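Worked example
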Amino acid sequence: MYDFLLPDMGATAPILLVALIGVVLVVVDSFSNDSASIPWLSGAVLVAAITIELARVGVTDSAFMGHVMSGGFASFVNVVILLGALGSVILSVPYLSRTGHNFGEVHALILIATAGMMVLANAGSLITLFVGLETMSICLYVLTGLVRDNERANESALKYFLLGAFSTGFFLYGIALLYGATGTMMLSDMPAALVETGRTGFFAGGVALLLIGFFFKVSAVPFHMWTPDVYQGAPTTLAGFMSTASKTAAFAALILVLGRILPLDDVGLDTRHVLAIVAAITMVVGNVLALAQRNIKRMLAYSSIAHAGYILTGLAAGALGYAGALYYLLAYTVMNIGAFGVMSVLEWDGKQGAEQTIDSLAGIGSRKPLLGVAMGVFMFALSGFPPLAGFFGKYFVFAAAVDAGLTWLALIGVLASVVSAYYYLRVLVAFWMKKPEDAHVSVQSAAFDVPLFSKVVLVACVAALIALGIVPGFITEAAGAFFVTPEATALLP
C-alpha cells in the first residue's frame, strides 16, 4: 500500500495543497494576527491548484485505492470550485476590510471548505462523500456567523447548523443502509454487490435517504427553507461562495452517485421521475417566491433555488444531461460570483445587505456605470438571454430532458425562466430607469468606491459569460468526453 502513497498524493495534489495551506494560514494568523499576506497566500494557492487541474483535465485516474477520483471529470469540477473560491477571496478582501471583519481565519476557512468541496466532488466511495460533505459544511456554518455582533447572522448560522445536522442524519442513515445492502463502501462496486446480496429494499431506502441529503445541500424544494435566511444573514461575498462552489461540489457528487449506482427502477425506486418531480417543483417554487422579494440577497437566494431545479432537470435526463449540467455549473458560478460581487460593493445598510432593498439603489447605474453594466450582464445571463452563457446552460439541460422523453419538464423549465425575467429585470429597472433622487438617503451620499481587484473580477466574469456564450460547444464537448457513451451510466472506466 505504501508503494502507492507518493503517486496517490501526486494525483490528489491540488486537494492536499489547498488543505495544507489552509492549516498553514491558521498558524500564520496565530503569530501575525490578520496579516496582509494571508489573502495573498490564499489566492496564490488557489491559482496554483487551478493550473494543476487544468493540466490534468484530459487524463482520468483515481487515488487511494479508488476512494478519490482525479483528472477528467474530477479536474473539471475542481476548476469550477476553485474559480468560485478564488473570486470570493478576491472580492472578500476589500469587502471584509470595509466592514471590519477581514480576519485571517476567514481565508483559512475558505481554503479548508474548498478542500472539503473537492473531496466531495471527487468521491469514489461513501466514506469520502461523507468526509468531504462534513468538512465543507462545518466551515460554511462558521463563515455564515462570521459577524458575531449581528443577530441576524447568528440566527442564520444557527439555523444552517441545525438543519444541516438534520440533513446529515439522513445522509448517514442512507450510507448505513447502502453498506448493509451491498457490503461495500465503493460506489463502483455497488451494482455487482447488490446482484449478489439481492437486498434491493435496503438499497432503495439508502439511496432515497442519500438523495434527501443531497437535495438539502443543493437547495432543492422542499429542503430549501434554510437558503434565503442564510444568504441574507451571511457576509455578501461569502454568500456568493456558498451559492456557487458548494452547489457545484454537491451536484458533482450527485452526478457521481447517479452515474455509479443508478438507475434503480428495477429495485423499486424510479429515480428518474423522482429527480424530475423535484426539479419541476424546485423551478416553480424558487421563481414564484423570488417574485415577492424586495431584498436583493433574498431574491438571489430564491434564484439559486430555481437554478438548482434547472440543473436537476439535466440530471433527470440521465447521462444525456450530465455534460449540460456541468456547463451550467460553470456558467452559474460565473454569474453568481459576479452578481454577489456587485452587491458587495453596493452594500450600504451596514448589516450584510439584510435590509437593503432593490429600490433603495435607484439610479445607481448612471452613477456607477461599471457596476450597472456588469449587473445588467449578470441579470440577463441568469434569466437566460442569448447569447450569454446562461441561455446555453438552460438550452443544454432542457434539450437533454426533451431527448430523454421529459418534454413536460423542459416546458415547465422554459415557463419558469420566462417568469424569472421579471424579477431579474426589476433590478435593472431600479439601476437604470429610476432617478438617483429616488434612492435611499444613505445611497445618495455614499461614494461606492470600486477597488481595483473587484473591478478585475467583475470584468472577468462579464467576459467569461460572453466567451462561454460564443463557444458553448467547446465546454460541453469537453464535459461530454468524461462519459463513455451518451447512454453510459458509469463515469469512469
About this structure: The two ends are 22 Å apart (CA to CA). The chain has one domain: 2-480.
